[in-house]
Amino acid sequence: MVDAAPKLNKFEKFKAEKDGLAVKPELKQFAEMGWEAVDETDLTHRLKWLGIFFRPVTPGKFMVRLRMPNGLLSSQKLRVLAEVIQQYGDDGSADITTRQNIQLRGIRLEDIPNIFERFEAVGLTSMQSGMDNVRNITGSPVAGIDANEVIDTRGFVRKLQDMITNNGEGNIAFTNLPRKFNIAVEGGRDNSVHAEINDIAFVPAYRGDLLGFNVLVGGFFSARRCEAAIPLDAWVEPNDDVVDLSRAILEVYRDHGSRVNRQKSRMMWLIEEWGIEQFRENVQAAYGRLLLRAASEDLIDWDKRDHIGVHPQQQPGLNFVGLNIPVGRLSAVDMFELARLADVYGEGELRLTVEQNVIIPHIPDSRLEVFLTEPVLERFSVQPSPLVRSLVSCTGAQFCKFALVETKQRALALAKALDQALELPQAVRIHWTGCPNSCGQPQVADIGLMGTKVRKDGKTVEGVDIYMGGKVGKSAQLGTCVQKGVPCDELPSVLTTLLTDHFGASPRSMAPEMHGGVAVTAV
Ligand code: SRM
Ligand code: SF4
Question: 63 CB less than 6 Å from ligand 2?
Protein backbone atom coordinates (compact mmCIF):
# COMPACT_ATOMS: atom_id res chain seq x y z
CA MET A 1 0.00 0.00 0.00
CA VAL A 2 1.30 3.49 -0.89
CA ASP A 3 1.40 6.03 1.98
CA ALA A 4 -0.93 9.00 1.57
CA ALA A 5 0.99 12.11 0.46
CA PRO A 6 1.75 14.37 3.45
CA LYS A 7 -0.76 17.20 3.91
CA LEU A 8 0.89 20.45 2.81
CA ASN A 9 0.49 23.61 4.88
CA LYS A 10 -1.43 26.58 3.44
CA PHE A 11 1.72 28.42 2.39
CA GLU A 12 2.79 25.43 0.32
CA LYS A 13 -0.60 25.35 -1.32
CA PHE A 14 -0.50 28.95 -2.48
CA LYS A 15 3.11 28.56 -3.62
CA ALA A 16 2.13 25.50 -5.66
CA GLU A 17 -0.75 27.44 -7.23
CA LYS A 18 1.48 30.35 -8.21
CA ASP A 19 5.16 30.86 -7.40
CA GLY A 20 6.12 33.98 -5.48
CA LEU A 21 8.30 35.22 -8.31
CA ALA A 22 5.34 35.15 -10.69
CA VAL A 23 4.28 38.59 -9.41
CA LYS A 24 7.39 40.19 -10.90
CA PRO A 25 5.95 40.75 -14.41
CA GLU A 26 2.63 41.85 -12.83
CA LEU A 27 4.15 44.63 -10.75
CA LYS A 28 3.36 47.46 -13.19
CA GLN A 29 -0.25 46.31 -13.38
CA PHE A 30 -0.50 46.17 -9.55
CA ALA A 31 0.91 49.69 -9.39
CA GLU A 32 -1.70 50.96 -11.83
CA MET A 33 -4.68 49.30 -10.20
CA GLY A 34 -3.78 50.26 -6.62
CA TRP A 35 -3.12 47.97 -3.66
CA GLU A 36 -6.79 47.65 -2.68
CA ALA A 37 -7.50 45.79 -5.94
CA VAL A 38 -4.58 43.35 -5.74
CA ASP A 39 -5.40 39.72 -4.99
CA GLU A 40 -4.96 39.19 -1.24
CA THR A 41 -2.35 36.42 -1.43
CA ASP A 42 -0.32 38.39 -3.98
CA LEU A 43 -0.57 41.47 -1.76
CA THR A 44 0.21 39.96 1.63
CA HIS A 45 2.54 37.13 0.64
CA ARG A 46 3.85 36.89 -2.93
CA LEU A 47 5.01 40.52 -3.13
CA LYS A 48 7.47 39.66 -0.34
CA TRP A 49 9.38 37.59 -2.93
CA LEU A 50 10.30 40.95 -4.48
CA GLY A 51 11.04 42.46 -1.07
CA ILE A 52 7.73 44.38 -0.93
CA PHE A 53 5.95 44.00 2.40
CA PHE A 54 2.31 45.01 2.85
CA ARG A 55 2.03 46.35 6.41
CA PRO A 56 -1.37 45.62 7.97
CA VAL A 57 -0.51 48.15 10.71
CA THR A 58 -0.15 50.93 8.09
CA PRO A 59 -2.19 49.75 5.07
CA GLY A 60 -1.07 51.33 1.81
CA LYS A 61 2.32 52.28 3.25
CA PHE A 62 4.62 49.43 2.29
CA MET A 63 8.00 48.38 3.63
CA VAL A 64 10.71 47.51 1.09
CA ARG A 65 13.53 45.25 2.29
CA LEU A 66 16.75 45.58 0.33
CA ARG A 67 19.68 43.19 0.08
CA MET A 68 23.06 44.48 1.30
CA PRO A 69 25.54 41.64 0.78
CA ASN A 70 28.15 41.78 3.55
CA GLY A 71 26.54 45.03 4.75
CA LEU A 72 28.31 46.99 2.00
CA LEU A 73 26.85 50.26 0.84
CA SER A 74 28.03 53.25 -1.22
CA SER A 75 27.15 56.92 -0.77
CA GLN A 76 25.51 56.80 -4.21
CA LYS A 77 23.21 53.93 -3.17
CA LEU A 78 22.46 55.53 0.19
CA ARG A 79 21.41 58.76 -1.58
CA VAL A 80 19.03 56.86 -3.82
CA LEU A 81 17.49 55.18 -0.77
CA ALA A 82 17.22 58.58 0.96
CA GLU A 83 15.54 60.15 -2.09
CA VAL A 84 13.01 57.30 -2.16
CA ILE A 85 11.84 57.83 1.42
CA GLN A 86 12.14 61.60 1.27
CA GLN A 87 9.15 61.81 -1.09
CA TYR A 88 6.91 60.40 1.68
CA GLY A 89 7.58 63.14 4.24
CA ASP A 90 6.99 61.98 7.80
CA ASP A 91 5.90 58.51 6.61
CA GLY A 92 9.29 57.87 5.03
CA SER A 93 11.99 56.33 7.21
CA ALA A 94 14.57 53.57 7.12
CA ASP A 95 15.84 50.95 9.51
CA ILE A 96 19.17 49.16 9.62
CA THR A 97 18.28 45.55 10.36
CA THR A 98 19.81 42.80 12.45
CA ARG A 99 21.03 41.25 9.19
CA GLN A 100 23.23 44.22 8.14
CA ASN A 101 20.53 45.38 5.80
CA ILE A 102 18.19 48.33 5.12
CA GLN A 103 14.40 48.46 5.10
CA LEU A 104 12.53 51.47 3.72
CA ARG A 105 9.13 52.56 5.03
CA GLY A 106 6.15 54.53 3.86
CA ILE A 107 6.47 53.31 0.27
CA ARG A 108 3.43 53.57 -2.06
CA LEU A 109 2.78 50.65 -4.39
CA GLU A 110 2.16 52.95 -7.35
CA ASP A 111 5.75 54.24 -7.09
CA ILE A 112 7.46 50.87 -6.90
CA PRO A 113 8.13 50.24 -10.62
CA ASN A 114 9.94 53.57 -10.79
CA ILE A 115 11.74 52.92 -7.47
CA PHE A 116 12.95 49.56 -8.78
CA GLU A 117 14.33 51.26 -11.91
CA ARG A 118 16.23 53.67 -9.68
CA PHE A 119 17.53 50.73 -7.61
CA GLU A 120 18.70 48.90 -10.70
CA ALA A 121 20.55 51.96 -12.02
CA VAL A 122 22.84 51.90 -8.95
CA GLY A 123 23.05 48.14 -8.44
CA LEU A 124 20.54 47.79 -5.59
CA THR A 125 18.06 44.94 -5.35
CA SER A 126 15.34 43.77 -2.99
CA MET A 127 14.90 40.44 -4.80
CA GLN A 128 13.97 37.39 -2.68
CA SER A 129 14.50 39.25 0.60
CA GLY A 130 11.36 37.90 2.31
CA MET A 131 9.30 34.73 2.83
CA ASP A 132 10.71 31.33 1.83
CA ASN A 133 13.97 32.68 0.45
CA VAL A 134 17.57 33.15 1.48
CA ARG A 135 17.73 36.41 3.45
CA ASN A 136 20.46 39.02 3.30
CA ILE A 137 23.78 37.22 3.47
CA THR A 138 25.94 38.57 6.25
CA GLY A 139 29.72 38.91 6.39
CA SER A 140 32.28 40.72 8.51
CA PRO A 141 31.43 44.45 8.38
CA VAL A 142 35.12 45.26 8.30
CA ALA A 143 36.02 42.84 5.51
CA GLY A 144 39.03 44.06 3.58
CA ILE A 145 39.87 46.79 6.11
CA ASP A 146 40.25 44.88 9.39
CA ALA A 147 43.91 44.87 10.41
CA ASN A 148 43.42 41.40 11.92
CA GLU A 149 41.30 39.92 9.18
CA VAL A 150 41.61 36.22 8.38
CA ILE A 151 39.62 36.02 5.12
CA ASP A 152 38.06 38.85 3.13
CA THR A 153 34.45 37.68 2.76
CA ARG A 154 33.14 40.31 0.33
CA GLY A 155 33.60 38.31 -2.87
CA PHE A 156 32.03 35.14 -1.44
CA VAL A 157 28.98 36.92 -0.12
CA ARG A 158 28.45 38.75 -3.41
CA LYS A 159 28.83 35.56 -5.47
CA LEU A 160 26.45 33.73 -3.17
CA GLN A 161 23.83 36.44 -3.54
CA ASP A 162 24.28 36.51 -7.31
CA MET A 163 23.86 32.73 -7.53
CA ILE A 164 20.82 32.66 -5.25
CA THR A 165 19.02 35.61 -6.89
CA ASN A 166 20.31 35.10 -10.45
CA ASN A 167 22.09 38.47 -10.29
CA GLY A 168 19.01 40.11 -8.80
CA GLU A 169 16.70 38.96 -11.60
CA GLY A 170 15.12 36.22 -9.46
CA ASN A 171 16.06 32.55 -9.41
CA ILE A 172 13.21 30.08 -9.62
CA ALA A 173 15.53 27.31 -8.36
CA PHE A 174 15.65 28.81 -4.88
CA THR A 175 12.41 30.73 -4.43
CA ASN A 176 10.39 27.85 -3.09
CA LEU A 177 12.28 26.69 -0.04
CA PRO A 178 10.26 25.07 2.76
CA ARG A 179 10.95 28.16 4.94
CA LYS A 180 13.19 31.19 5.29
CA PHE A 181 16.95 30.58 5.20
CA ASN A 182 19.95 32.45 6.59
CA ILE A 183 23.60 32.32 5.48
CA ALA A 184 26.61 34.01 7.10
CA VAL A 185 30.25 34.10 6.03
CA GLU A 186 32.60 35.13 8.83
CA GLY A 187 36.09 36.26 7.92
CA GLY A 188 37.32 37.72 11.21
CA ARG A 189 38.34 36.29 14.55
CA ASP A 190 35.42 37.63 16.56
CA ASN A 191 32.30 36.15 14.97
CA SER A 192 30.94 39.57 14.08
CA VAL A 193 27.95 38.07 12.25
CA HIS A 194 26.60 35.69 14.93
CA ALA A 195 27.53 32.74 12.70
CA GLU A 196 25.92 30.26 15.09
CA ILE A 197 22.38 31.52 14.49
CA ASN A 198 22.40 30.90 10.73
CA ASP A 199 21.16 27.94 8.68
CA ILE A 200 24.61 27.86 7.05
CA ALA A 201 27.68 29.53 8.52
CA PHE A 202 31.20 29.57 7.12
CA VAL A 203 33.83 30.25 9.79
CA PRO A 204 37.56 30.61 9.08
CA ALA A 205 39.73 27.60 9.91
CA TYR A 206 43.17 26.21 9.01
CA ARG A 207 43.24 22.65 7.69
CA GLY A 208 46.91 21.86 7.90
CA ASP A 209 48.58 24.85 6.24
CA LEU A 210 45.55 25.73 4.16
CA LEU A 211 43.21 28.50 5.15
CA GLY A 212 39.52 27.95 4.43
CA PHE A 213 36.17 27.64 6.18
CA ASN A 214 34.62 25.13 8.56
CA VAL A 215 30.91 24.82 7.90
CA LEU A 216 28.12 24.95 10.49
CA VAL A 217 24.49 24.16 9.73
CA GLY A 218 21.00 24.39 11.18
CA GLY A 219 21.13 27.46 13.44
CA PHE A 220 17.80 29.25 13.75
CA PHE A 221 15.37 31.09 16.00
CA SER A 222 11.65 30.69 15.89
CA ALA A 223 8.75 31.18 18.27
CA ARG A 224 8.70 27.44 18.93
CA ARG A 225 12.37 26.70 19.26
CA CYS A 226 15.87 28.22 19.05
CA GLU A 227 19.00 26.27 18.19
CA ALA A 228 22.65 27.12 17.61
CA ALA A 229 24.18 25.74 14.40
CA ILE A 230 26.09 22.45 14.62
CA PRO A 231 29.21 21.36 12.71
CA LEU A 232 28.60 19.74 9.31
CA ASP A 233 32.08 18.28 9.70
CA ALA A 234 33.11 19.85 6.43
CA TRP A 235 35.81 22.27 5.32
CA VAL A 236 35.99 24.20 2.07
CA GLU A 237 38.69 26.22 0.41
CA PRO A 238 38.06 29.97 0.13
CA ASN A 239 37.03 29.90 -3.52
CA ASP A 240 33.95 28.96 -5.53
CA ASP A 241 33.51 25.88 -3.29
CA VAL A 242 31.71 28.22 -0.85
CA VAL A 243 29.07 28.90 -3.51
CA ASP A 244 28.92 25.28 -4.69
CA LEU A 245 28.49 23.89 -1.19
CA SER A 246 25.81 26.44 -0.35
CA ARG A 247 23.99 25.50 -3.53
CA ALA A 248 24.20 21.80 -2.58
CA ILE A 249 22.86 22.42 0.94
CA LEU A 250 20.04 24.57 -0.42
CA GLU A 251 19.08 21.86 -2.92
CA VAL A 252 18.98 19.19 -0.22
CA TYR A 253 16.85 21.41 2.01
CA ARG A 254 14.59 22.48 -0.87
CA ASP A 255 13.96 18.89 -1.95
CA HIS A 256 13.72 17.18 1.44
CA GLY A 257 12.77 19.79 4.07
CA SER A 258 9.33 19.33 5.62
CA ARG A 259 6.49 21.28 4.02
CA VAL A 260 3.83 20.01 6.41
CA ASN A 261 4.10 22.08 9.59
CA ARG A 262 5.71 25.52 9.14
CA GLN A 263 6.74 25.48 12.79
CA LYS A 264 8.91 22.44 12.00
CA SER A 265 10.25 23.38 8.59
CA ARG A 266 13.57 25.08 9.28
CA MET A 267 16.59 23.06 8.17
CA MET A 268 17.55 21.87 11.67
CA TRP A 269 14.37 19.77 11.76
CA LEU A 270 15.55 17.90 8.64
CA ILE A 271 19.06 17.48 10.08
CA GLU A 272 17.57 15.97 13.21
CA GLU A 273 15.21 13.70 11.33
CA TRP A 274 18.07 12.24 9.27
CA GLY A 275 20.97 12.61 11.69
CA ILE A 276 23.94 14.79 10.75
CA GLU A 277 25.83 11.95 8.96
CA GLN A 278 22.95 11.17 6.59
CA PHE A 279 22.41 14.89 6.04
CA ARG A 280 26.11 15.24 5.21
CA GLU A 281 25.95 12.30 2.78
CA ASN A 282 23.04 13.89 0.95
CA VAL A 283 24.87 17.22 0.80
CA GLN A 284 27.98 15.50 -0.54
CA ALA A 285 25.91 13.78 -3.25
CA ALA A 286 24.42 17.14 -4.29
CA TYR A 287 27.89 18.74 -4.11
CA GLY A 288 29.11 16.08 -6.52
CA ARG A 289 32.56 15.59 -5.02
CA LEU A 290 34.25 14.50 -1.84
CA LEU A 291 33.48 16.79 1.06
CA LEU A 292 36.59 17.25 3.18
CA ARG A 293 36.23 16.69 6.93
CA ALA A 294 36.36 19.82 9.11
CA ALA A 295 39.52 21.33 10.55
CA SER A 296 39.80 20.48 14.23
CA GLU A 297 39.49 24.11 15.34
CA ASP A 298 38.19 27.30 13.85
CA LEU A 299 39.85 30.70 14.22
CA ILE A 300 37.10 32.41 16.17
CA ASP A 301 39.18 33.15 19.24
CA TRP A 302 38.30 36.74 20.07
CA ASP A 303 35.50 38.31 21.98
CA LYS A 304 33.10 40.13 19.69
CA ARG A 305 33.90 43.77 18.84
CA ASP A 306 31.22 46.39 18.33
CA HIS A 307 33.19 48.52 15.81
CA ILE A 308 32.05 51.81 17.43
CA GLY A 309 34.71 54.54 17.52
CA VAL A 310 37.96 55.05 15.59
CA HIS A 311 39.98 52.00 14.46
CA PRO A 312 43.14 51.89 12.33
CA GLN A 313 42.67 49.89 9.13
CA GLN A 314 44.96 47.29 7.61
CA GLN A 315 45.81 50.06 5.08
CA PRO A 316 48.39 52.30 6.84
CA GLY A 317 47.21 55.84 7.53
CA LEU A 318 43.52 55.00 7.09
CA ASN A 319 40.82 54.43 9.72
CA PHE A 320 37.32 53.08 9.93
CA VAL A 321 34.94 54.88 12.27
CA GLY A 322 31.87 53.19 13.72
CA LEU A 323 28.89 55.46 14.41
CA ASN A 324 26.16 54.44 16.81
CA ILE A 325 22.75 54.72 15.10
CA PRO A 326 20.30 54.44 18.02
CA VAL A 327 18.11 51.35 17.37
CA GLY A 328 19.03 51.58 13.67
CA ARG A 329 16.41 54.21 12.78
CA LEU A 330 17.28 56.74 10.03
CA SER A 331 15.49 59.62 8.31
CA ALA A 332 16.14 60.75 4.73
CA VAL A 333 18.11 63.73 6.06
CA ASP A 334 20.27 61.41 8.19
CA MET A 335 21.01 59.25 5.17
CA PHE A 336 22.03 62.21 3.01
CA GLU A 337 24.28 63.35 5.84
CA LEU A 338 25.94 59.93 6.24
CA ALA A 339 26.48 59.76 2.47
CA ARG A 340 28.11 63.20 2.60
CA LEU A 341 30.44 62.14 5.43
CA ALA A 342 31.48 59.05 3.44
CA ASP A 343 32.24 61.19 0.39
CA VAL A 344 33.98 64.08 2.11
CA TYR A 345 36.13 62.12 4.58
CA GLY A 346 36.30 58.60 3.14
CA GLU A 347 36.02 57.07 -0.29
CA GLY A 348 32.24 57.10 -0.61
CA GLU A 349 31.83 53.75 1.10
CA LEU A 350 29.77 52.73 4.16
CA ARG A 351 29.26 49.48 6.01
CA LEU A 352 26.34 48.25 8.11
CA THR A 353 26.62 46.00 11.16
CA VAL A 354 24.26 43.41 12.65
CA GLU A 355 24.09 45.74 15.67
CA GLN A 356 22.21 48.18 13.40
CA ASN A 357 25.12 50.65 13.23
CA VAL A 358 27.12 52.31 10.43
CA ILE A 359 30.85 52.23 9.74
CA ILE A 360 32.56 54.81 7.55
CA PRO A 361 35.87 53.44 6.28
CA HIS A 362 38.97 54.91 4.63
CA ILE A 363 39.27 58.11 6.69
CA PRO A 364 42.88 59.33 6.56
CA ASP A 365 44.65 60.13 9.84
CA SER A 366 44.92 63.75 8.68
CA ARG A 367 41.11 64.10 8.31
CA LEU A 368 40.10 62.39 11.56
CA GLU A 369 40.17 65.40 13.83
CA VAL A 370 37.87 67.43 11.59
CA PHE A 371 35.62 64.45 10.97
CA LEU A 372 35.08 64.03 14.70
CA THR A 373 33.79 67.60 14.98
CA GLU A 374 30.93 67.00 12.50
CA PRO A 375 27.65 68.01 14.22
CA VAL A 376 25.82 64.84 13.15
CA LEU A 377 28.15 62.83 15.42
CA GLU A 378 26.33 64.34 18.39
CA ARG A 379 23.42 62.06 17.47
CA PHE A 380 25.34 59.25 15.78
CA SER A 381 28.02 59.14 18.41
CA VAL A 382 31.44 57.52 18.23
CA GLN A 383 31.43 57.44 22.04
CA PRO A 384 27.88 56.57 23.03
CA SER A 385 26.90 55.82 26.61
CA PRO A 386 27.30 52.11 27.54
CA LEU A 387 23.70 50.93 27.18
CA VAL A 388 22.79 52.99 24.11
CA ARG A 389 26.05 51.80 22.53
CA SER A 390 25.05 48.16 22.43
CA LEU A 391 21.31 48.49 22.12
CA VAL A 392 19.56 46.46 19.40
CA SER A 393 15.84 46.43 18.72
CA CYS A 394 13.49 44.79 16.25
CA THR A 395 10.73 46.76 14.53
CA GLY A 396 8.02 46.19 17.11
CA ALA A 397 4.42 47.41 17.23
CA GLN A 398 4.95 50.60 15.23
CA PHE A 399 5.01 48.61 11.97
CA CYS A 400 4.84 44.87 12.74
CA LYS A 401 1.55 43.06 13.27
CA PHE A 402 3.19 40.25 15.24
CA ALA A 403 4.48 42.63 17.89
CA LEU A 404 3.17 42.29 21.41
CA VAL A 405 4.89 45.51 22.51
CA GLU A 406 6.31 48.75 21.16
CA THR A 407 10.08 48.21 21.07
CA LYS A 408 12.36 50.81 19.47
CA GLN A 409 11.22 53.98 21.24
CA ARG A 410 10.82 52.23 24.57
CA ALA A 411 14.22 50.54 24.24
CA LEU A 412 15.97 53.81 23.54
CA ALA A 413 14.19 55.79 26.26
CA LEU A 414 14.98 53.13 28.83
CA ALA A 415 18.64 52.74 27.80
CA LYS A 416 19.16 56.51 28.00
CA ALA A 417 17.48 56.69 31.40
CA LEU A 418 19.54 53.82 32.80
CA ASP A 419 22.73 55.32 31.35
CA GLN A 420 21.95 58.57 33.16
CA ALA A 421 21.25 56.85 36.44
CA LEU A 422 23.95 54.19 36.50
CA GLU A 423 27.72 54.03 36.19
CA LEU A 424 28.64 50.97 34.15
CA PRO A 425 32.17 49.62 33.89
CA GLN A 426 31.50 48.26 30.38
CA ALA A 427 28.90 48.17 27.64
CA VAL A 428 26.04 45.73 28.27
CA ARG A 429 24.33 44.33 25.19
CA ILE A 430 20.56 44.70 25.58
CA HIS A 431 18.45 43.32 22.71
CA TRP A 432 14.71 43.96 22.40
CA THR A 433 12.38 41.83 20.34
CA GLY A 434 8.66 42.47 20.06
CA CYS A 435 7.51 38.84 19.99
CA PRO A 436 8.86 35.28 20.18
CA ASN A 437 9.92 35.31 16.50
CA SER A 438 13.16 36.78 17.89
CA CYS A 439 14.12 39.11 15.03
CA GLY A 440 15.96 41.23 17.64
CA GLN A 441 17.97 38.13 18.70
CA PRO A 442 17.42 38.36 22.50
CA GLN A 443 19.15 34.99 22.86
CA VAL A 444 22.54 36.42 21.83
CA ALA A 445 22.34 39.37 24.26
CA ASP A 446 23.71 39.95 27.73
CA ILE A 447 20.12 40.90 28.55
CA GLY A 448 17.41 40.00 26.05
CA LEU A 449 13.88 41.37 26.34
CA MET A 450 11.10 39.58 24.47
CA GLY A 451 7.70 41.25 24.22
CA THR A 452 4.70 39.58 25.81
CA LYS A 453 1.35 40.49 27.35
CA VAL A 454 1.08 40.53 31.14
CA ARG A 455 -1.82 40.83 33.59
CA LYS A 456 -1.32 43.64 36.08
CA ASP A 457 -3.90 45.17 38.41
CA GLY A 458 -6.68 43.36 36.54
CA LYS A 459 -5.57 44.73 33.17
CA THR A 460 -3.55 43.33 30.25
CA VAL A 461 -0.40 45.40 29.82
CA GLU A 462 2.78 45.25 27.74
CA GLY A 463 5.56 43.24 29.30
CA VAL A 464 8.68 41.20 28.56
CA ASP A 465 10.26 37.85 29.22
CA ILE A 466 13.90 38.36 30.21
CA TYR A 467 16.76 36.33 28.68
CA MET A 468 20.30 36.22 29.98
CA GLY A 469 23.55 34.39 29.32
CA GLY A 470 23.88 34.99 25.58
CA LYS A 471 27.56 34.87 24.72
CA VAL A 472 28.94 36.16 21.43
CA GLY A 473 32.36 35.87 19.80
CA LYS A 474 34.43 32.82 20.73
CA SER A 475 32.51 29.93 22.33
CA ALA A 476 29.23 31.62 21.46
CA GLN A 477 26.19 30.31 23.28
CA LEU A 478 22.52 31.17 23.40
CA GLY A 479 20.95 32.83 26.42
CA THR A 480 17.89 31.42 28.12
CA CYS A 481 14.77 32.84 29.71
CA VAL A 482 15.42 33.78 33.34
CA GLN A 483 12.26 35.72 34.20
CA LYS A 484 8.83 35.68 32.62
CA GLY A 485 6.12 38.30 32.35
CA VAL A 486 7.71 41.51 33.70
CA PRO A 487 5.40 44.50 33.06
CA CYS A 488 7.26 47.16 31.05
CA ASP A 489 6.61 49.83 33.68
CA GLU A 490 8.58 47.73 36.18
CA LEU A 491 11.59 47.41 33.86
CA PRO A 492 13.51 50.44 35.22
CA SER A 493 13.86 48.84 38.63
CA VAL A 494 14.17 45.24 37.39
CA LEU A 495 16.95 46.17 34.96
CA THR A 496 18.69 48.33 37.58
CA THR A 497 18.88 45.26 39.83
CA LEU A 498 20.14 43.01 37.01
CA LEU A 499 22.75 45.55 35.91
CA THR A 500 23.92 46.02 39.50
CA ASP A 501 24.02 42.33 40.41
CA HIS A 502 25.51 40.96 37.17
CA PHE A 503 27.33 43.78 35.37
CA GLY A 504 28.87 45.89 38.15
CA ALA A 505 26.56 48.92 37.79
CA SER A 506 26.52 51.49 40.58
CA PRO A 507 24.30 54.55 41.05
CA ARG A 508 25.62 57.84 39.70
CA SER A 509 25.89 60.40 42.48
CA MET A 510 23.98 63.13 40.63
CA ALA A 511 21.17 61.07 39.14
CA PRO A 512 18.08 63.00 38.02
CA GLU A 513 14.58 62.37 39.34
CA MET A 514 14.52 58.72 40.34
CA HIS A 515 12.01 55.98 40.26
CA GLY A 516 13.01 52.45 41.19
CA GLY A 517 16.66 53.40 40.75
CA VAL A 518 16.51 55.20 37.36
CA ALA A 519 15.42 58.47 35.86
CA VAL A 520 11.79 58.39 34.86
CA THR A 521 11.11 58.67 31.15
CA ALA A 522 8.30 57.21 29.07
CA VAL A 523 8.97 53.48 28.98
FE1 SRM B 1 12.33 38.68 11.28
C2 SRM B 1 9.23 37.72 10.39
C3 SRM B 1 11.56 41.89 10.80
C4 SRM B 1 15.64 39.47 11.39
C5 SRM B 1 12.97 35.64 12.69
N6 SRM B 1 10.68 39.62 10.64
C7 SRM B 1 9.51 39.03 10.28
C8 SRM B 1 8.57 40.04 9.63
C9 SRM B 1 8.79 39.97 8.15
C10 SRM B 1 7.09 39.77 9.98
C11 SRM B 1 6.18 40.71 9.26
O12 SRM B 1 5.77 40.43 8.12
O13 SRM B 1 5.83 41.72 9.84
C14 SRM B 1 9.11 41.35 10.27
C15 SRM B 1 8.94 42.61 9.47
C16 SRM B 1 8.62 43.76 10.38
C17 SRM B 1 8.95 45.08 9.77
O18 SRM B 1 8.03 45.78 9.28
O19 SRM B 1 10.10 45.48 9.84
C20 SRM B 1 10.54 40.95 10.57
N21 SRM B 1 13.41 40.34 11.02
C22 SRM B 1 12.89 41.59 10.94
C23 SRM B 1 13.97 42.64 11.02
C24 SRM B 1 13.68 43.89 10.21
C25 SRM B 1 14.19 43.01 12.51
C26 SRM B 1 15.02 44.26 12.70
O27 SRM B 1 14.43 45.24 13.16
O28 SRM B 1 16.19 44.27 12.38
C29 SRM B 1 15.18 41.81 10.55
C30 SRM B 1 15.35 41.84 9.06
C31 SRM B 1 16.58 41.11 8.61
C32 SRM B 1 16.85 41.25 7.14
O33 SRM B 1 17.42 42.26 6.77
O34 SRM B 1 16.47 40.34 6.39
C35 SRM B 1 14.75 40.42 11.00
N36 SRM B 1 14.02 37.70 11.85
C37 SRM B 1 15.28 38.24 11.91
C38 SRM B 1 16.14 37.35 12.65
C39 SRM B 1 17.57 37.65 13.05
C40 SRM B 1 18.62 37.10 12.13
O41 SRM B 1 18.34 36.72 10.99
O42 SRM B 1 19.76 37.07 12.58
C43 SRM B 1 15.37 36.25 13.02
C44 SRM B 1 15.82 35.05 13.87
C45 SRM B 1 16.81 34.20 13.16
C46 SRM B 1 16.21 33.18 12.26
O47 SRM B 1 15.42 33.54 11.38
O48 SRM B 1 16.54 32.01 12.40
C49 SRM B 1 14.04 36.49 12.51
N50 SRM B 1 11.30 36.95 11.46
C51 SRM B 1 11.71 35.84 12.14
C52 SRM B 1 10.65 34.89 12.18
C53 SRM B 1 10.68 33.48 12.83
C54 SRM B 1 11.22 32.48 11.84
C55 SRM B 1 10.81 31.05 12.11
O56 SRM B 1 11.51 30.15 11.62
O57 SRM B 1 9.77 30.82 12.73
C58 SRM B 1 9.55 35.48 11.52
C59 SRM B 1 8.15 34.88 11.30
C60 SRM B 1 8.11 33.89 10.19
O61 SRM B 1 9.03 33.79 9.36
O62 SRM B 1 7.11 33.18 10.15
C63 SRM B 1 10.00 36.78 11.09
FE1 SF4 C 1 7.88 41.75 14.34
FE2 SF4 C 1 8.17 39.93 16.24
FE3 SF4 C 1 10.04 40.19 14.38
FE4 SF4 C 1 9.80 42.08 16.19
S5 SF4 C 1 10.35 39.95 16.62
S6 SF4 C 1 9.96 42.41 13.97
S7 SF4 C 1 7.63 42.09 16.58
S8 SF4 C 1 7.98 39.53 14.02
Answer: no
